[in-house]
Design brief:
By secondary structure, the protein is mostly helical. It has one domain (2-133). It has helices at residues 2-7, 11-33, 47-63, 101-133; strands at 43-44, 89-90. Strands 1-2 form a two-stranded antiparallel sheet. It is elongated.
Length: 137
């Protein structure tokens, strides 16, 4: 019963966005920590892969029949968005160097903003659910 309530909100999507941005932040901070290490190659999680999986999940959710629980037979099961966090890729340029400090810090700032947006949306969704449960408008 409660699972159906959460599946009709933006909570599952924002949860996956928060999980991805947290995992990516860990990878990016590792890059910054090793910026002076000889022969260290910067790593990153593929934002494009994550966005692709997110798009697939939203399409599967949109195609599901109204009132149909996520596990019922019907449209294909929602793909696991968090799988995009398991494949850190190495960024290697033609000269063998990796990204500089400025690039890493910029990516960390963008990732931090993405995480904050996800948490803000999730908080507002929980407030809306709380208001619906307590029958306040």
């Amino acid at each position: 019963m409660f699972q159906g309530i959460f599946q009709t909100t933006a909570i599952p999507v924002t949860e996956q966005l928060a999980v991805f941005s947290q995992a990516r932040h860990e990878v990016l901070t590792g890059n910054v920590a090793n910026i002076g290490t000889p022969d260290y190659q910067a790593r990153d999680l593929s934002v494009d892969d994550f966005q692709s999986k997110l798009r697939e999940a939203l399409e599967a959710r949109r195609n599901r029949m109204p009132g149909q629980p996520p596990g019922d037979a019907g449209p294909p099961e929602t793909p696991r968005i968090a799988d995009a966090t398991k494949d850190p890729t190495t960024i290697l340029y033609h000269d063998g160097s990796s990204d500089g400090m400025e690039f890493q810090v910029t990516e960390m700032a963008k990732n931090h903003l993405q995480h904050n947006v996800a948490m803000s949306i999730m908080g507002s969704q929980f407030r809306l659910l709380g208001a619906a449960i307590s029958e306040r408008v």
